[in-house]
Structure formats: structure tokens, C-alpha cells
Amino acid sequence: MSGFRDRARTALADPLLQKALRNVPRGFIAKRAKAKAALPEFEQLREEASALKAFTLDNLDTFLATFVERAQTSGAKVHFASNTEEANRIVIDILKKAGVHLVAKGKSMISEETELNTALQRAGMEMVETDLGEYIIQLRDEKPSHIVAPAIHLSRREIEPAFRQAHTELPSDRQLVEKEDFVAEARSILREKFRTADAGITGANLLIAETGSTVLVTNEGNGDLSSTLPRIHVVLASIEKVVPTLEDATTILRLLARSATGQEITSYTSFFTGPRRPGDVDGPEEMHIVLLDNGRSEILAGPFSDILKCIRCGACLNHCPVFGAVGGHAYGGVYPGPMGEVLAPALHGIGKVSDIVDACTMCGRCAEVCPMGIPLPSLIRRWRMEAFRQAQVSPVQRLGLKVWAWLARHPHLYALAMRIAMPLLKFALRWKELLRRIPGLSAWMAERELPPPQGRTFTAMWKAARRKRP
Length: 470
Ligand code: SF4
Prior knowledge:
Elements lengths: L3 H9 L2 H7 L1 H15 L4 H17 L1 H14 L3 E5 L2 H14 L4 E4 L3 H6 L1 H7 L3 E4 L2 H8 L16 H11 L12 H18 L2 E4 L3 E3 L4 E6 L3 H7 L3 E7 L3 E2 L2 H15 L7 E5 L13 E7 L3 H5 L14 H4 L2 H6 L10 H12 L1 H4 L11 H5 L6 H14 L5 H14 L2 H18 L3 H4 L6 H5 L11 H11 L2
Parallel strand pairs: 1-10, 2-3, 2-4, 4-7, 5-8, 7-10
Antiparallel strand pairs: 5-6, 6-9
Bound molecules: iron/sulfur cluster.
Iron/sulfur cluster binds next to α15.
């Protein structure tokens, strides 16, 4: 199996992907900046949201118990799944018992984590993704490359063949050029699926303990159609999505849309509280909520618990220079970008994904924009330390780090080493082309200029400045 470096190399050499990735700053960064500027209390909201999430996580058992009790009172059935296999088994059992053949599915990162689509297909059920981006990648048999915009890596030119191949019932000479052509075609196909689906599966952006409600935000309304038209509605969510009150949910919702898409609020923000009641004009006959743990209880008790504050807005991905260069598939898992670099090792173990924690320049932009104040670079750095501790880094890198750490703990020797290294480096850099051929240096120097050291060392300047101080 290829690692991050190989996948990144492939991504960098893909001109269509590179063109598609240029939309990330245009589409997301500018819109978020505008939305933030229009909300003077953004920073205050950020602090409030981070504090309320920290408080909720500290009391997660209490709020989860309240959520379950209130959801059950409203008529929903709540199920707990300790891992991904159990979650899929519970969902499939619910659907089989209800005689479901066709499932309309809303966007859900948790279902990506559990690989629910594959499990449903194995169980012999037809499942249709109803979020446009998810529908596109389902037709192309791909994984999402972004947690908010799953098909951001694709251009219309790449999507067109997938539509023509899948929608053979439509005239072959139809026009598929503009964005509107694709949206209209997908809508016409999906309307029929919504109408005939026996069950709808959605995720949840939040779970409200106070009311037992699940909250779903979308811009296409597909989540509402998936949850209200079919007989059965299954919500698949992870346990950390719970917040204490409706008021708390609105605090987070004010940050979510602005951080994700630069909107004040998403086009559809829906609250689901139990199945259809007597007198309701629509709604499912049964509502099930499957709460997935999958290692989150352990994460909660450890040094990476801050990542459980994540509301999946995608802002850290959009502002990450590494994500912007290689896209989401290079990370090789469900969660890409800075949040993925913290969450993926926490879920799967650093031994399985140690290469992705190197996909960070420590520029700090992710932490600056994270609406939940998650210290992403510090957490990534901590995973690097863990990778080093567990011997997940190459022997050469390990030796280099050990030598550097030893020198850093012996300042006099460090200063001496720097004094010797500077003229040597200056001398060696006269033969840059030769240096570029040295294994270990060649990759680093391929894309970078290494200017010769100038003047005195930092330590020498610092000592001189100290001597001048009164
Ligand atoms: S880590 Fe922060 S910025 Fe990244 S997706 Fe989560 S909430 Fe958004």
C-alpha cells in the first residue's frame, strides 16, 4: 500500500486535480473571511463555543444519558455501537426488520468511518447518496476528498462521463456543460429515489440533550427529504456531537456555516425530535439513532481530547497549504487535512498512519481559523513525538533527531557545533548540484533553495545583545 509521500507525488503531478484545488481558496477562504468580518462577535462566539464544548466533554456521560432519555421520550429508539462493525450491524438489522430495499442516504462522515455503504451493498440493499457531491463520487466509486465538499477534487469534465454512463435512460444528446445542467439532472434522478426509498439514513451535526433532538445542516435539502419521506429514519452520529441545550446548539450553528462555507446559516437547518406523531403531516414511522463510540471514550481520557470539539466545518482543510497542494485523497483515509492528522491516529493508532502527521508545515493557519479553538499544530506535534517514541520514523531521521536533542540540551556544544557547521555549509554550498545528489538531501533540495549562512550565528547575536543590556 502506498504512503502519503507517494500519494502526494501522484496528486502533485495530476493537472486536473491541481486545477480543481485552486477553487479551494477562491470558494472557501474568501467567503469565510467576509462572513467573519461581518460578525464582530465572532471571536467571542469562538471562545464561548470552545468552552461549552470543553464543559460538555467533561460531563459527556451525563449529557449523553439526558439525550438518550429525552430522545426515547419523543419516540426515537437509541442504539449504542462501540465500534464500526457494530454500528453497521445495528443499522442493517433495523433495515432488514423493516423490509427495506432502497435507502436514500444523506451526507454523513460517520457512515464513511464505518464504511456503511459497502456493508449495505453486501446486505443486498440499494443505497443512493443524495448529497450532490456524494452522489457524484458514488457514481465514480470514489471516497470523499473533503469533509464538507466531497467532490471538490473533480472538474465537470471528469463528472460528465459518470453521469452519461449512469443515466442511460436520458437522451444521449443532452447538454452537460454548466453546473446547472448537472444539478438539474441529479435532481430529476434523485427525486424518484426520495419518493420510493423505504428508509433514509442521515448524519447529525449536533445532538441536543435538553430536547433529545438531532440537528442536521445541508444546503441542498436532501437531508430533509431523506429523513421525512421514507418510513424509517436512521441517524448515525458519534457520541461527542452532544451539546447540553438548544441555546448551545445555536452558538455552534452560528460558527459552523460561517467557518464552512462563509454563509450566515446553511440553507436548511433541521431539528428532528422523534418520529411522526398523530396529526403530523409528514415524518417517518420509526426514528432510530445509532450512537457510535469507536474509540472516542479513550480519546476523551487522553491528551488528544480537544479534537472531539471538532464540528467538521472544514476550515482547517481549506486554509492548510499542504491540503491545498495535494487534496484530500493523499491522506489515505476518511478524515484529511489538519483535523484528520489528529483524529486519524487517535482512531486507528499512530502505527497505521504515522506518515500523515508529517504532512504539516506548522504554519499555524489551521489553529487560527478553527472555530472551536482546537490547537491543531500542537496536537500534530504531539503525534510526531508519539511516532518517534514508538519508533515509527526512519532510523536516519531518528538518529538526526536524537543528535539534535542531545546538542540542544548542551548549549555550549550546540554553539560550538553551529560555529563549525556554518563555514562548512557555506563552503559546501558552492557545489549545490553535487549536494542535490546526496541521498536524503536530494528530495529536500529538489524544491528548495538553501542560501549560504550569512553573518554570525543566532546564539552569538543573542549573547552580544545580552551583553549590551544595561
Ligand atoms: S478542527 Fe476546527 S477547523 Fe478543522 S474541521 Fe474541526 S472545527 Fe473545523
